[in-house]
Each structure stands twice: as structure tokens, then as C-alpha cells.
Amino acid sequence: MCSRQKCDLPKKGKPLNLGDPFPNFKCITTDGEFMFHDYIDGSWAILFSHPADYTPVCTTELARAAQLSSTFNLKGVKLIALSCDSVESHRGWIKDVSAFGELPEGPFPYPIIADEKRDIATLLGMLDPEEKDKEGIPLTCRAVFMINGKEPQKPMKLSMLYPASTGRNFDEVLRAMDSLIVTETRQVATPAEWKKGTPCMVLPHVTDEQVPKLFPTGIRRIAVPSGKDYMRTTMD
């Protein structure tokens, strides 16, 4: 799978933890062949897998991702999908995805990896033992990996894993990416139900002396029964 360049995929069965360097591997895709790290270098990236082409839920998911692709692009985020189907299958199915999503004419907005031998899916732990093809071989689940390709080690910053029966909310995927981007350089965390443009929580370790420099527009304190001064918000 990796004859042209060195790959650094983890050993089979080794789970990827948050912050781990994301593996590099050769991608055979609808947009040609390339190394994964070359594709994501200098950008945030989202790799997401789906069980199979020409299936209803997967069609809705990839269509929604395509509809949001320009928004992701503006944020400096590259999308790339994956399943165990062939490139030929992907290219044929893209027509259905584009029609369902009412996408404008032109090239599909992101590549889809053909992992027919399941090498990538196995090594990244993306196979669903309960979802199998007609030959009884496990298919890929609905995995999502968010990787910071701007850092040399290309660390994984977030992962989500869904069963085949549950379609993903790509607006939530976008929201999670917004959170990673905002919190990458600021001393904040995003609360429940947060959306870009709404208040963030100031991290507890930030002292009052640091507040004017870190948050020149100020912060808001929220009183709680304990009397502890840890509920502080600021605009993102």
C-alpha cells in the first residue's frame, strides 16, 4: 500500500488517542493518488468514513458534507471521505450524491478514498463488526477524525464513532471544528450548545491579572451558589 513513500501507520489494533500523531498512508482516491500527510499539510483536516456507496444514509451524509464544503474551505479545513468501495464505484455514486444534495455542476468538492483491502480502515479501527458486505466482511463504520495538519506531527485532535444505523449531523461536525479552531490559540473552552459567535468559557487557570491582556474586550462573571469564581465567559 505504501511502496512509493514511507508510511507510519500504527500496528494493527493500537488505538489512536487524542494528541497522537496521525498516521501517514497512500490514498487512492477519486482525485488521484497522494500521501495523506501531503494532502492535509498546512490545514486542518477531517477524514470521515462511511459503510458503503449507493446506500441511503451515506448518500445523505456525503451530500450534506458537500453542501458545507465551501464553509469548511473558508475555515482552512480539508475534507476527505473513505469507504471500502472502489474508485469506480465512488465516481459513479458521486452523481447520485450530487443530485440528492442539489450540488452545483462541476467537480465533487472533496476526494473519496478507495480502501478496498481495508488496510486503512483496519489500522485506524474503523471497521464495524456488525455491518458486513454480502461476503460477510466487515464494512467501515461512520468514523470522524479531525487532524491539525498545520503541526509537524499532524496530531489527531478529535474523533467520533457512529454505528452504521446512525447518520451523522455534519452541522455538529462543523461546530466541533469551529471549537477546535477557536480554542487552538485562545485560553478558552466552548460550553454545551456553543456555536461560533457566542460566549466561550475562560479557562480556570487564567488569573485576574492575565484577563486584561488575554481578553481586552472583558469577561463576564456568573455567580454560583458555591461562591467559587470559576464561571467566566468571553466572546469568541
UniProtKB/TrEMBL annotation:
It catalyses: a hydroperoxide + [protein]-dithiol = [protein]-disulfide + an alcohol + H2O. GO terms for molecular function: peroxiredoxin activity. One of its GO terms (biological process) is cell redox homeostasis. It comes from the Eukaryota. Keywords: Antioxidant, Oxidoreductase, Peroxidase, Redox-active center. The keyword Nucleotidyltransferase does not apply. PROSITE patterns: THIOREDOXIN_2. Gene3D superfamilies: Antioxidant, Horf6, Chain A, domain2, Glutaredoxin. Pfam families: 1-cysPrx_C, AhpC-TSA. The keyword Oxidoreductase applies. The active site is at C58 (cysteine sulfenic acid (-soh) intermediate). GO terms for cellular component: cytosol; mitochondrion. Residues 16-182 form the Thioredoxin domain. Thiol-specific peroxidase that catalyzes the reduction of hydrogen peroxide and organic hydroperoxides to water and alcohols, respectively. Plays a role in cell protection against oxidative stress by detoxifying peroxides. Belongs to the peroxiredoxin family. Prx6 subfamily. This is 1-Cys peroxiredoxin. It comes from Tropilaelaps mercedesae. The lineage of its organism: Eukaryota, Metazoa, Ecdysozoa, Arthropoda, Chelicerata.
